[in-house]
Specification:
Chain A has 225 residues and is mainly alpha-helical. Chain A has a domain of 148 residues. Helix content of chain A is 71%, strand content 0%. In chain A, 40% of the residues are buried. Chains in contact: A-B, C-D. Chains A and B meet through α6, α7, α8 and α9 of A and α6, α7, α8 and α9 of B. The structure holds a DNA duplex (21 and 21 nucleotides).
DNA sequence: AATGAATGAGCCTTCATTCAT
DNA sequence: AATGAATGAAGGCTCATTCAT
């Protein structure tokens, strides 16, 4: 990407007026469109500005550099996905563990509003920038919170999850989804794929629960995020 | 970015002589070193040629473009890892399912000869090029073969794996390892991380086996690669 | 020249402001100067940009590639020459056929503002690019128009010219001039050379006129551009 | 072409043995084929050597540089064309001026064994190298000789031709043919085109003859090559 | 005589970013 | 706040040519 600076966050100006907010939204939307159509190769700041209908200078008024724009898009979609999951969990008819897991998996599979190419490009770019951590942090928190909620519910046997367990829980399913996105696997949105992901996660959680008595009682060393 | 051609493989000349083979090896090794020290940003064809002690022209004699070199490095390491796994399975003292899984997981974790930065860079680049499929194909074949071997062993209950199961099996564990590499997680090489990955895979395999009687008997629709 | 693309015209941005127009003019002028001094070998985009006093990026802002710049220069000079011929025909004291022909020949000989090396380089490059047609089209049109004007004048015997006649008329004289330029013949600007060219063209026109009665009367098959 | 040296002639070794002569012929033929198929862009020394089935080193054994090879090809074809003209003039049934002119024109149109793309490429390259003079010299000599022969024949009125006349005579017709080749004009091999070229040349010669009495008597200043 | 691996100067081009208006 | 012309570092890549074997 030949970026000269790599400020993780680099917003120059917080938009305070309605017009400015619209401009920012237009730029982010333009970025998504460019990515969707032309992939990472077409994603140049000039191209985004042009499609957004603003000058390149205006783009830099709101996004300190190319990365900031990419990150903003990624964050926006990630937050939308998490919010979606939250809604799904809330309104879920099936309150069982499997029901909850399925709701989460399904939402993650269908994230990014169906813009697969854009999603792929964003994932590629995020990974290429080494910004994966940033974006995964909220996911981990979310899962930890969900896990804690489940674990603390009356009849649950789910213990507090270790750092490694949390990591694997969030990265394995998401990693598989991600791989399917990057490889453009046709079965990404199939029921079979979803079923297997759910099976894997549920099986893993089951194994964790089953291991509890042997491994430990309530342990202060465990992370309870 | 701005790649003009994307030939998956782009070797120009097959080295027929000992001297040429050495040159090729030197170039690939130089690439790994450059990547290890300076990451993707430092990975320029000129830099690689210089470190390899050959002219840029010589580099292009053997690698059609920058990508071909990257791919060659990735392939070499991937094959080395698979071979390593093969050896590990062969000489494994513990022939149990968990023993086998652990051998595979451990090898994947320690792949790329411990050059983590180089590994990260290669993964980033491969993903950014959308070349993930190419590299994962042999892994999937390998796992399918291993799965088939296990499944056909006398007392095994492991059925033939479906396409989706195969995918998830190979990508979830590898996806988690990959994420740990990209995020430079400190626990990557820890015993705890390995344990959890093994637990996840074993649990998933157990769930697959448990599901067989209900789902289906021997089914010709299943992939038995 | 190792050109990868061959877009006949490849202007990136239409200059809308006075400053931009000046920049473009400066670049084209610089190109002519570089060509005049160092020939085709010295004609590199970086050299042109430097002489023009702009950055290489600016050059590419207005000319999609090296070729586009070359073509722009060629077009500019070609159009200047045609305009010059137009003025010469207009103000010509000698309205005879020979007078007109001489005016045209003389202007073509002295085209390109006397910059013979630049002219040679441009011709070479244009031919090497296979772009000769593009540049000759307006000349053919011009000659056709002139021929038609002459032919339709009261006492003229000049018939409408066929495609082949038009072609030969425009290419033979110009071809001889071009050859003299490329071969750097010392007599290029001599009176004797001009005289002979005029003689050739006039003789050919005379032959065409003489042939009319035998060949055909007014014939709709003939091109009257 | 980025040539570093430009030795007009640069043969390294005169082949004295049959095998060597075959090799040289194979290389020249390969050059013609490469040119015919891929144009100037494909004409690299390595490509020619490969097609000729020899190593690049061998190519350089016989041709000092790329130019020498190009020139050799051009010469070979040019000489073939002149020889062809000679034969045509010899066996010509029509001994009139027009008959002779037509024989010459026709041969020039059909030169290069019908390999139009190769011819075009050679012309482009020759012009781009500024080697036009070299190749045209024999043509001029030939025409001068032919003119002298005609002029000295009993009833002929053709005077010795001046340098400029010779030049125009050879370059105008050939220039028109050349332009048709470069522009890939479809009528290149048409009867109409040939007719007009003949008409032009004959008309010009007629004008020269007609001018003799007024201009000069036998003049020592005239070139009688 | 032939081979072909190696050379390397240097070209074209991209695109993130700045700043005067 | 917005504009957009201008910047320029930097990188991928070509190909004629050499020379040790």
């Amino acid at each position: 990407m030949a970026t000269r600076r790599q400020p993780v966050e680099n917003k120059r100006r917080i938009p305070r007026q309605a017009r400015a907010a619209e401009t920012v939204a237009a730029i982010v939307e333009a970025a998504a469109q460019i990515l969707e159509r032309g992939g990472l190769a077409a994603f140049t700041t000039n191209a985004v500005a042009e499609r957004a209908g603003v000058s390149i200078g205006t783009l830099y008024q709101y996004f300190g550099d190319k990365n900031a724009l990419l990150l903003a898009l990624a964050r926006q979609e990630m937050e939308a996905a998490l919010a979606e999951i939250g809604r799904a969990l809330q309104g879920e008819v099936d309150p069982s563990l499997e029901g909850r897991v399925r709701a989460m998996v399904r939402t993650m599979i269908h994230a990014f509003r169906g813009r697969q190419r854009a999603r792929k490009a964003v994932v590629q770019a995020i990974l290429a920038q080494g910004l994966g951590i940033e974006l995964m942090a909220p996911v981990a928190s979310f899962i930890a919170a969900a896990g804690a909620a489940v674990g603390s519910s009356p009849g649950s046997m789910l213990p507090a999850l270790s750092r490694e367990q949390l990591f694997i829980l969030s990265r394995s399913a998401l990693g598989a989804i991600r791989a399917a996105v990057l490889e453009e696997q046709p079965f990404l949105r199939s029921r079979g794929f979803e079923d297997e992901l759910v099976r894997m996660v549920v099986a893993y959680l089951g194994a964790i629960i089953a291991a509890v008595p042997r491994d430990l009682g309530p342990d202060p060393g465990r992370t309870r995020v």
